Amino acid sequence: MAGTDRSQDLTFRASPAIILCEPQLGENIGTAARAMANFGLWDLRVVNPRDGWPNERAVAAASRADHVIDKVRVFATLEEAIADLSLVFATTARRRDVQKPVLGPEEGAQRMISHIAGGAGAGLLFGRERWGLYNEEVSLADAIVTFPVEAAFASLNIAQAVLLMSYEWRRQFDTGEVLPFTGGLDAAAPRSELMGLFGHLEETLDRTGFFKTADKRPTMVENLRAVFARAGLSSQEIRTLRGVISSIDRMHERQRPDRAPPDGDS
Amino acid sequence: MAGTDRSQDLTFRASPAIILCEPQLGENIGTAARAMANFGLWDLRVVNPRDGWPNERAVAAASRADHVIDKVRVFATLEEAIADLSLVFATTARRRDVQKPVLGPEEGAQRMISHIAGGAGAGLLFGRERWGLYNEEVSLADAIVTFPVEAAFASLNIAQAVLLMSYEWRRQFDTGEVLPFTGGLDAAAPRSELMGLFGHLEETLDRTGFFKTADKRPTMVENLRAVFARAGLSSQEIRTLRGVISSIDRMHERQRPDRAPPDGDS
C-alpha cells in the first residue's frame, strides 16, 4: 500500500518502548521498526541480537524507517533494557505459569497511555522467533498482554505482534482525528438541486410511459427518490445524472415532421 | 510468538472475504493467509496472481495456515471475485479522487459484522505491492477503508494491512456488539447485479454519445459508478433503475426503416 507522504514531518511523541529479546534475524528487527514507524512509535531496544548490530538486513527490511533504525539501542541484558521504565508488559501467545494479570491489547494500550500521560516510561517485551519469552523474562513484567487470536492458529511473528500493539496504542491515543485522509465525498448538494433531479427524471418517465398505471406511480416515485436521496449526491453528480437522462432521452433526435417539437426541447 | 494449540479445532465461521488484486509475490499471499488464520478468517480470493497458482512460496510463507491456502480461489478479474458479495470495502493508504466515504478500520469492521450478521457476504480489497488498487477497482467498492497511520510513514505491506483488518474484525466480533436490528434497507444486491447495471448504463451512454471524448470516458464512468456503488442498491432497485434506462431509451420507438434494429431490442 503505497501512500507515504514525504513532505510530512516525522513526530517523536512520548510513546511506548518496544523491546525485542534476543531476536535471531535482522529482518525481524527491521520489520518491527517499520511497523512501529507506521503508527508513530520510535523507541526500539534490542537485547543481545544474535547477529550483532548494526545489521544490514535490518536496515533493508525496515523499508526506510531510518528514523527508528538510527535510534535503536542495544543492551546486553533485559534488565538493562528496561531499567528506566516503570510499566512493562510481556507479550505472549501462551498461557504462563506465572502469577500475572493477563490483558488484551486494548486494555494494555489504555494502561500505557495513562502511564505515559503521567510522564513515566512504559515498554512492551517481545520474545524470540522460536521460543518467545522465557518465564524469567515474563516475571520482570507488570502484566502479560496477549492477542484475541484463534487458539488453533495463535502464532504471530514479531513484526505482526509489534504492529498490532502499535496500532492499538495509536488508535486509542488519537481517538478521533487519526486517519491520514478523510471525507472522500464532496459536500452533498442542497435539497433544491436534488428536487430538480427528481423533477427532471419524473417528467421524462411520465413522457416515456414508465409508470404503467397511475395508482402505482406514487410508490414507484418514492422508491426511486429513496435511491438518489440516500446517495448523498454532490452538485456535480446531480449535473452528471441530469446529463445522463438527457443523453439517453435524446429528445432532439426524436423530432419528426409529423410531430410538433415538445416544449422546452433544444 | 509460539503458542498454537493444535488440539483446538479450526472454525470456519461466517467472516469477510479477503481479495488480493494481482499480487506479485507468492510470499505475500502466504503471509496474508497466515494473518487471516490468526484471527479466524479463511475466505481468501486472489485476482490474477503474477506467478500463477498454486504457488510454493505462498505455501511456505503461510506457515501452516493450510486450511486457508487450500481454499484459495483464483479469479481472472476483480468483477468475478466479488460477484457474490454485497458489501465491499477498498483498503488504501492514499487519498483517492473518487467519491466514496472513507472509514477507519473500526467502523469498517463494524459495518462488515452487521452485514454478515444479516446473512450477506462482505469483502475487503487489497492492492498490488507497488501501486495498490487502481481507481477503477476502488470505484467498485462501497467505501474506502484506511488506517490511522503516520502520514510521513504510511506504507503498510499487504500482510500487515490484512492482519489489522482481521484483528479489528475479530476484536469487535468477539465483543458481541451486534445491533439487534439493522437499518430499514433491503439487502444490497450481489456485486454481479450491480455490474449488470453498470454495463447496461454504459452501453446505453456509449450509444447515445454521452462520453464526448474517449479520454474522458474512464473518469466519467468511475464517477457514475461511484454514485451507484455507494447507494447500497437492492436487487429490486437495480431492476427498477434498469427499467428507467430502458424506458427513457425507448429503442423500439427509434427504429427507422433506414437502420437495422439493434441487437436485443424488443
Question: What does this 3D model show about the protein?
Answer:
The structure is a homodimer of 266-residue chains. Chain A is an alpha/beta fold and 266 residues long. Chain A folds into 2 domains: 17-173, Alpha/beta knot (3-Layer(aba) Sandwich), CATH 3.40.1280.10; 191-254, Orthogonal Bundle (Helicase, Ruva Protein, domain 3). The first copy, chain A, contains 11 helices and 7 strands. Chain A has helices at 26-38, 56-61, 66-69, 78-81, 105-117, 135-138, 158-173, 191-207, 217-229, 235-249, 251-254, and strands spanning 17-21, 44-47, 73-75, 87-91, 102-103, 122-126, 143-145. A 7-stranded parallel β-sheet of chain A has the order 3-2-1-6-4-7-5. In chain A, helix 5 crosses helix 7 (158-173) and helix 8 packs parallel to helix 10 (235-249). The longest helix of chain A is centred in the C-terminal third of the chain and has 17 residues, at 191-207. Chain A is elongated. The mean pLDDT of chain A is 88.
